[in-house]
Amino acid sequence: MTRTDLLRSWFVAPPLAGKWVILWILISLPVATVIRSSMHCSDAIGDCCAPFFVFVLLTAILLGSLAAVVAAVASMVVSILLFSQQAHPMQMGDGSELLSTILFALYCVLIICSVEYVRRAFARFSRIASTKETSSGVIFSLEKGQAWASWPGSPSPVRLGPEHEVTAMMEDFIAQVELGHRLAERAAERAQGSNARVSAEA
Protein backbone atom coordinates (compact mmCIF):
# COMPACT_ATOMS: atom_id res chain seq x y z
CA MET A 1 0.00 0.00 0.00
CA THR A 2 1.42 3.38 -1.01
CA ARG A 3 1.41 6.45 1.20
CA THR A 4 -1.40 7.94 -0.89
CA ASP A 5 -3.50 4.80 -0.54
CA LEU A 6 -2.92 4.81 3.21
CA LEU A 7 -4.01 8.45 3.52
CA ARG A 8 -7.08 7.79 1.39
CA SER A 9 -8.06 4.81 3.53
CA TRP A 10 -8.00 7.04 6.62
CA PHE A 11 -9.31 10.35 5.30
CA VAL A 12 -11.53 9.61 2.31
CA ALA A 13 -13.49 6.92 4.14
CA PRO A 14 -13.53 5.68 7.75
CA PRO A 15 -11.07 2.78 8.06
CA LEU A 16 -13.35 0.68 10.28
CA ALA A 17 -16.63 -0.84 9.13
CA GLY A 18 -19.97 0.05 10.73
CA LYS A 19 -20.12 -3.26 12.60
CA TRP A 20 -17.41 -1.97 14.93
CA VAL A 21 -19.54 0.90 16.27
CA ILE A 22 -21.08 -0.95 19.21
CA LEU A 23 -17.83 -2.66 20.22
CA TRP A 24 -15.91 0.62 19.96
CA ILE A 25 -18.41 2.50 22.13
CA LEU A 26 -18.59 -0.30 24.72
CA ILE A 27 -14.81 -0.22 25.09
CA SER A 28 -13.92 3.45 24.59
CA LEU A 29 -16.76 5.16 26.44
CA PRO A 30 -15.96 3.49 29.80
CA VAL A 31 -12.30 4.43 29.33
CA ALA A 32 -13.22 8.08 28.72
CA THR A 33 -15.57 7.97 31.73
CA VAL A 34 -12.85 6.59 34.03
CA ILE A 35 -10.41 9.26 32.88
CA ARG A 36 -13.05 11.95 33.47
CA SER A 37 -13.75 10.58 36.94
CA SER A 38 -10.06 10.69 37.86
CA MET A 39 -9.85 14.40 37.04
CA HIS A 40 -10.37 16.91 39.84
CA CYS A 41 -13.18 19.01 38.40
CA SER A 42 -16.48 20.40 39.52
CA ASP A 43 -19.66 18.42 38.98
CA ALA A 44 -20.73 20.58 36.04
CA ILE A 45 -21.24 18.70 32.79
CA GLY A 46 -19.16 21.18 30.83
CA ASP A 47 -16.05 20.87 33.02
CA CYS A 48 -13.17 18.54 32.15
CA CYS A 49 -14.86 17.15 29.04
CA ALA A 50 -11.61 16.57 27.16
CA PRO A 51 -11.82 12.73 27.46
CA PHE A 52 -15.27 12.72 25.90
CA PHE A 53 -14.21 15.13 23.16
CA VAL A 54 -11.25 12.90 22.30
CA PHE A 55 -13.64 9.93 22.27
CA VAL A 56 -15.95 11.72 19.82
CA LEU A 57 -13.01 12.84 17.67
CA LEU A 58 -11.54 9.34 17.38
CA THR A 59 -14.97 7.93 16.61
CA ALA A 60 -15.48 10.45 13.81
CA ILE A 61 -12.09 9.58 12.32
CA LEU A 62 -12.31 5.81 12.66
CA LEU A 63 -16.02 5.13 12.16
CA GLY A 64 -17.53 8.19 10.47
CA SER A 65 -19.95 10.98 11.31
CA LEU A 66 -23.02 8.86 12.16
CA ALA A 67 -21.05 6.80 14.65
CA ALA A 68 -19.60 10.03 16.09
CA VAL A 69 -23.13 11.35 16.64
CA VAL A 70 -23.95 8.17 18.57
CA ALA A 71 -20.75 8.61 20.58
CA ALA A 72 -21.60 12.25 21.33
CA VAL A 73 -25.10 11.38 22.53
CA ALA A 74 -23.76 8.54 24.67
CA SER A 75 -21.12 10.86 26.17
CA MET A 76 -23.76 13.46 26.95
CA VAL A 77 -26.00 10.90 28.65
CA VAL A 78 -23.10 9.60 30.74
CA SER A 79 -22.11 13.14 31.70
CA ILE A 80 -25.65 13.99 32.77
CA LEU A 81 -26.12 10.79 34.77
CA LEU A 82 -22.71 10.68 36.47
CA PHE A 83 -21.34 14.22 36.57
CA SER A 84 -24.41 16.42 36.87
CA GLN A 85 -24.49 18.71 39.87
CA GLN A 86 -28.26 18.34 40.16
CA ALA A 87 -29.75 16.08 42.80
CA HIS A 88 -31.79 14.51 40.02
CA PRO A 89 -29.54 14.42 36.92
CA MET A 90 -32.37 14.33 34.43
CA GLN A 91 -33.86 17.55 35.82
CA MET A 92 -31.88 20.53 34.59
CA GLY A 93 -33.37 23.31 36.60
CA ASP A 94 -30.10 25.21 36.85
CA GLY A 95 -29.50 27.53 33.92
CA SER A 96 -25.73 27.01 34.08
CA GLU A 97 -26.20 23.27 33.87
CA LEU A 98 -28.39 23.65 30.79
CA LEU A 99 -25.84 26.02 29.25
CA SER A 100 -23.04 23.54 29.91
CA THR A 101 -25.02 20.79 28.22
CA ILE A 102 -25.71 22.97 25.19
CA LEU A 103 -22.03 23.93 24.91
CA PHE A 104 -21.05 20.28 25.25
CA ALA A 105 -23.36 19.42 22.32
CA LEU A 106 -22.07 22.34 20.23
CA TYR A 107 -18.46 21.31 20.77
CA CYS A 108 -19.28 17.77 19.69
CA VAL A 109 -21.03 19.07 16.58
CA LEU A 110 -18.02 21.25 15.80
CA ILE A 111 -15.67 18.27 16.13
CA ILE A 112 -17.82 16.04 13.90
CA CYS A 113 -18.31 18.73 11.24
CA SER A 114 -14.58 19.52 11.20
CA VAL A 115 -13.66 15.88 10.60
CA GLU A 116 -16.32 15.57 7.89
CA TYR A 117 -15.10 18.76 6.19
CA VAL A 118 -11.48 17.55 6.19
CA ARG A 119 -12.58 14.16 4.85
CA ARG A 120 -14.56 15.69 1.98
CA ALA A 121 -11.78 18.18 1.18
CA PHE A 122 -9.23 15.37 1.07
CA ALA A 123 -11.54 13.26 -1.10
CA ARG A 124 -11.91 16.16 -3.53
CA PHE A 125 -8.12 16.69 -3.55
CA SER A 126 -7.61 12.97 -4.22
CA ARG A 127 -9.99 13.08 -7.18
CA ILE A 128 -8.19 16.11 -8.61
CA ALA A 129 -4.79 14.46 -8.11
CA SER A 130 -5.96 11.21 -9.65
CA THR A 131 -6.73 13.00 -12.95
CA LYS A 132 -2.98 13.51 -13.38
CA GLU A 133 -2.23 9.78 -13.08
CA THR A 134 -1.55 7.75 -16.22
CA SER A 135 -3.75 4.91 -14.95
CA SER A 136 -6.87 5.37 -12.85
CA GLY A 137 -7.11 1.73 -11.79
CA VAL A 138 -10.86 1.61 -12.45
CA ILE A 139 -12.27 -1.91 -12.33
CA PHE A 140 -15.64 -2.79 -13.86
CA SER A 141 -17.62 -5.81 -12.73
CA LEU A 142 -21.02 -7.45 -13.16
CA GLU A 143 -23.25 -8.82 -10.43
CA LYS A 144 -26.85 -9.95 -10.85
CA GLY A 145 -27.24 -7.99 -14.09
CA GLN A 146 -25.88 -4.77 -12.58
CA ALA A 147 -22.64 -3.06 -13.63
CA TRP A 148 -20.33 -1.84 -10.88
CA ALA A 149 -17.16 0.25 -10.84
CA SER A 150 -14.45 0.56 -8.20
CA TRP A 151 -11.13 2.36 -8.01
CA PRO A 152 -8.33 3.02 -5.50
CA GLY A 153 -9.58 5.16 -2.63
CA SER A 154 -13.24 4.23 -3.18
CA PRO A 155 -14.77 2.87 0.04
CA SER A 156 -17.11 0.56 -1.88
CA PRO A 157 -18.05 -0.24 -5.50
CA VAL A 158 -20.41 2.20 -7.21
CA ARG A 159 -23.44 0.83 -9.06
CA LEU A 160 -23.54 2.18 -12.60
CA GLY A 161 -26.88 0.68 -13.65
CA PRO A 162 -28.28 -2.32 -15.56
CA GLU A 163 -25.81 -4.13 -17.78
CA HIS A 164 -27.55 -3.34 -21.09
CA GLU A 165 -27.84 0.38 -20.31
CA VAL A 166 -24.22 0.69 -19.18
CA THR A 167 -23.02 -1.28 -22.23
CA ALA A 168 -24.97 1.01 -24.57
CA MET A 169 -23.59 4.11 -22.88
CA MET A 170 -20.02 2.78 -23.07
CA GLU A 171 -20.41 1.94 -26.76
CA ASP A 172 -21.77 5.43 -27.42
CA PHE A 173 -18.89 6.96 -25.43
CA ILE A 174 -16.30 4.95 -27.37
CA ALA A 175 -17.93 5.98 -30.67
CA GLN A 176 -17.81 9.65 -29.65
CA VAL A 177 -14.14 9.36 -28.66
CA GLU A 178 -13.24 7.67 -31.97
CA LEU A 179 -15.18 10.33 -33.89
CA GLY A 180 -13.31 13.05 -32.01
CA HIS A 181 -9.98 11.43 -32.84
CA ARG A 182 -10.88 11.18 -36.56
CA LEU A 183 -11.98 14.80 -36.69
CA ALA A 184 -8.79 15.89 -34.94
CA GLU A 185 -6.66 13.88 -37.39
CA ARG A 186 -8.47 15.40 -40.39
CA ALA A 187 -8.07 18.87 -38.97
CA ALA A 188 -4.34 18.22 -38.46
CA GLU A 189 -4.02 16.90 -42.04
CA ARG A 190 -5.79 19.96 -43.45
CA ALA A 191 -3.54 22.22 -41.41
CA GLN A 192 -0.45 20.44 -42.68
CA GLY A 193 -1.73 20.68 -46.28
CA SER A 194 -2.35 24.40 -45.92
CA ASN A 195 1.13 24.93 -44.47
CA ALA A 196 2.64 22.93 -47.36
CA ARG A 197 0.82 25.01 -49.97
CA VAL A 198 1.89 28.24 -48.29
CA SER A 199 5.50 27.02 -48.27
CA ALA A 200 5.33 26.01 -51.94
CA GLU A 201 3.87 29.36 -52.98
CA ALA A 202 6.54 31.17 -50.99
Give the secondary structure arrangement, pairings included.
Blueprint lengths: L2 H9 L9 H18 L11 H14 L1 H19 L11 H36 L8 E5 L2 E5 L7 E5 H39 L1
Helix pairs in contact: 2-3, 2-4, 3-4, 3-5, 4-5
Low-confidence stretches: 130-134
Q: What is the topology, as strand order, of the major beta sheet?
A: 1-2-3
> What's the order of the H and E elements?
HHHHHEEEH
First-last Cα distance: 60 Å
Radius of gyration: 28 Å
Shape: elongated
How is the biggest beta sheet arranged? 3 strands, antiparallel
* Number of separate structural domains: 2
Helical content band: 55-70%
Chain oligomer state: single chain
Count of helical segments? 6
The counted number of beta strands is: 3
Strand content of the residues, in percent?
A: 5-15%
Please, could you describe this protein's structure?
The chain is mainly alpha-helical. It has two domains: 3-130, no CATH class; 146-201. The chain is 67% helix and 7% strand. It is built from six helices and three strands, in the order αααααβββα. The chain has helices spanning 3-11, 21-38, 50-63, 65-83, 95-130, 163-201; strands spanning 139-143, 146-150, 158-162. It has a three-stranded antiparallel β-sheet with strand order 1-2-3. Strand 1 (139-143) and strand 2 form a beta hairpin. The chain starts with a helix and ends with a helix. The model is unreliable at 130-134 (pLDDT under 50).
Question: What keyword list fits this structure?
Answer:
mainly alpha, three-stranded antiparallel sheet, 67% helix, 7% strand
